UniProtKB/TrEMBL annotation:
InterPro entries linked to this entry: Nucleotide-bd_a/b_plait_sf, RBD_domain_sf, RRM2_NsCP33-like, RRM_dom, RRM_euk-type, SLIRP/GR-RBP-like
Identification of the protein by name: RRM domain-containing protein
Keywords annotated in UniProt: RNA-binding
Key word RNA-binding present: yes
SMART domains linked to this entry: RRM (SM00360), RRM_1 (SM00361)
Coiled-coil boundaries: none
Domain of life: Bacteria
Residue ranges occupied by any RRM domain in the UniProt entry: 1-79
SUPFAM superfamilies for this protein: RNA-binding domain, RBD (SSF54928)
UniProt GO molecular function: RNA binding
Length: 94
């Protein structure tokens, strides 16, 4: 089960995120999303558990609780929205 974790401290590391979720079950991965240009945290990340039960336990145990000095938002991750190609490319000139 993959979880979305929001309102993370910008100083939190992947290892610290994993450590916060480890008491709830077998963490397969913990990744904080970083900005490409600055390599700074975007303030959210994802934690993946081996089982749905462990993920649900983590939601119940950590949603609204303090992790790294901030009250985090924890819920089940939704699949990413399909990307649209709005802008960024060259316009056709007629």
């Amino acid at each position: 089960m993959k979880l979305y974790v929001g309102n993370l401290s910008y100083r939190l590391t992947d290892a610290e995120l994993e450590e916060a979720f480890a008491p709830f079950g077998n963490v397969l991965s913990a990744k904080i999303i970083m900005e490409r240009e600055t390599n700074r945290s975007k303030g959210f990340g994802f934690v993946e558990f081996e089982s749905k039960e462990d993920g649900e336990s983590a939601i119940e145990g950590l949603n609204g609780k303090e992790v790294g000095g901030r009250a985090v938002v924890v819920n089940e991750a939704r699949p990413p929205k399909p990307r649209t190609h709005n802008g960024g490319g060259q316009r056709k000139r007629y």
